[in-house]
Design goal:
This protein has 465 residues and is an alpha/beta fold. The chain is built from 13 helices and 24 strands. The structure holds shikimate-3-phosphate and phosphoenolpyruvate.
């Protein structure tokens, strides 16, 4: 699907979709349990991939309203979970079965990393694959760590990329892993480590990037009654993942959420596009409102402070979970995205609208996502008239709304590039055609409906609307 976005004025209220990161973890944690209900889940292409993996290991995922039949749903690859307010998960009780078939993780890095470690618990082989993007992303450090723990863990092409073959069972132990490629390796080892016999001790060989995502994991594990601890160089416990030298998770634990249910909070990476859209295009003198913004461990809540720093008035009522943003003349800022890689496309788009220079630092790991997002934003914003400078670890956008013009831009088959370019298009002269816009189904399937309801001029062509 291609979309044509025209400069528009926005007003009204939008609701944030549920968090993708929490939904992945909650589905898998429920899989590790004897069964649990996941309330207000994100149902999207990526989270369906995790649901399929839970089913492949012998669990099941079905709408909790009784519309689905748990037993029948167990192996149904195309199970319809759309619009489910809650999902009933039957777990595999910490002992994944050997899957009958290959697990297709589609476009989802989180699924591939978390499910690779889960597969290591099975007494037999699991094969994991994904789409072209996922098959080009780095899995080597996690495979090496699992191999060091005595599990067969291989890339079929011996290049550290999927397809992968993993054969357990994993008993636990101590392992070293780099922290600067993906935090998802740590999340994967902690989630699986809790149900090993001996537990797992993870030592970081390089400082952790994307640390708030490990905090999300620790928060969710605690809610499922599972203990895992970040530690400093001396092995003493820390309050959070930032600055950790390693992590420990005792074995033999049981996943069980209080009252058998877990509720997913709203997604701040998705909120970043709504907030950005408001800062760029809210009706003068009116606030655009975003609901579903309750605080959680998400590092991407930093977008609230970043948009404020760029000059837009923002009020966040944390208790009500509501954000109000007004349009303003934005100015460039310097932002370190070491903890918040998924904000890079949004910040770059806002930087293209803002006056002056926006420097996005510490962004090398943002190159290992669905696409190289540093290059993608540098090139696509340049096509819209913005001047951009790309270094390995820094993206600089020399902004100015008056320079931005409509163009045909490529969403790079990447949900975040599509949504960020659509935000920039709100301020561009003329019409911007964004190609491959259907990829928003990875994290925010209702994105174009939500922004059209706010008044964004959006015309959609082709399939998948
Ligand atoms: O664990 C998670 O839910 C995620 C971790 C981050 O990846 P990295 O840890 O690979 O940076 C983030 O970019 C991704 O969108 C989701
Ligand atoms: C990088 C992302 O997700 P994943 O790593 O799960 O593909 C993302 O959602 O931006």
């Amino acid at each position: 699907m291609d979309v044509r976005v025209t400069r528009s004025t926005l007003r009204g209220t939008a609701r944030a979709p549920p968090s993708k990161s929490y939904t992945h973890r909650a589905l898998l944690a429920a899989g590790y349990s004897d069964g649990a209900t996941v309330e207000s889940p994100l149902v999207s292409a990526d989270t369906r991939a995790t649901a399929r993996a839970v089913a492949a290991f012998g669990g099941s995922v079905a709408p909790a309203d009784g519309a689905g039949d748990g037993a029948a749903a167990t192996q149904a690859a195309d199970l319809d979970l759309t619009d489910a307010d809650a999902l009933a998960v039957e777990g595999f009780g910490g002992r994944p079965a050997v899957p009958d078939d290959v697990i297709d993780c589609a476009n989802s890095g989180t699924t591939m990393r978390l499910v690779t470690a889960a597969a290591a618990l099975a007494d037999g082989a699991t094969v994991l694959t994904g789409d072209g993007s996922l098959r080009s992303r780095p899995q080597g450090p996690l495979l090496d760590a699992l191999a060091d723990l005595g599990v067969r863990a291989e890339s079929t092409r011996s290049n550290g990329q999927a397809p992968l073959v993993v054969a357990g069972p994993l008993g636990g132990g101590e392992v070293a892993i780099p922290g600067d490629v993906s935090s998802q390796y740590v999340t994967a080892l902690l989630m699986a480590g809790a149900v090993t016999d001996d537990g797992v001790e993870v030592d970081l060989t390089t400082p952790l990037k994307s640390a708030p995502y490990v905090d999300i994991t620790l928060e969710l594990l605690a809610d499922f009654g599972v203990e895992a601890t970040p530690v400093d160089e001396a092995g003493d416990p820390l309050d959070g993942a930032a600055g950790a030298a390693g992590f420990t998770v005792p074995g033999g634990q049981t996943y069980a959420p209080t009252d058998g249910t877990y509720a997913v909070p709203g997604d701040f990476s998705s909120i970043s596009y709504l907030l950005g859209a408001g800062a760029v295009a809210a009706a003068p003198g009116e606030s655009l409102r975003i609901e579903g913004a309750r605080p959680s461990a998400q590092g991407d809540a930093a977008i609230v402070e970043i948009v404020e720093r760029m000059g837009a008035p923002v009020e966040w009522d944390r208790e009500a979970g509501e954000i109000a943003v007004e349009r303003a003349e934005l100015s460039g800022v310097t932002v370190d995205v070491g903890d918040t890689p998924d904000l890079l496309p949004t910040i770059a788009a806002l930087g293209a609208v803002a006056d002056g220079e926006t420097r996005i630092e510490n962004c090398e790991h943002v190159r290992y996502k669905e696409t190289d997002r540093v290059s993608a934003m540098a090139e696509e914003l340049a096509a819209m008239g913005a001047e951009t400078t790309e270094e390995r670890d820094v993206l600089t956008v020399h902004g100015g709304e008056s320079d931005l013009r409509g163009a045909t831009v490529d969403g790079r088959a990447d949900h975040r590039i599509v949504m960020a370019l659509s935000v920039a298009a709100l301020a561009a002269e003329g019409t911007t055609m964004v190609r491959g816009a259907e990829h928003v189904d990875v994290s925010f399937p209702g994105f174009f409906d939500a922004v059209a309801d706010l008044g964004m001029g959006v015309e959609r062509d082709g399939a998948g609307e």
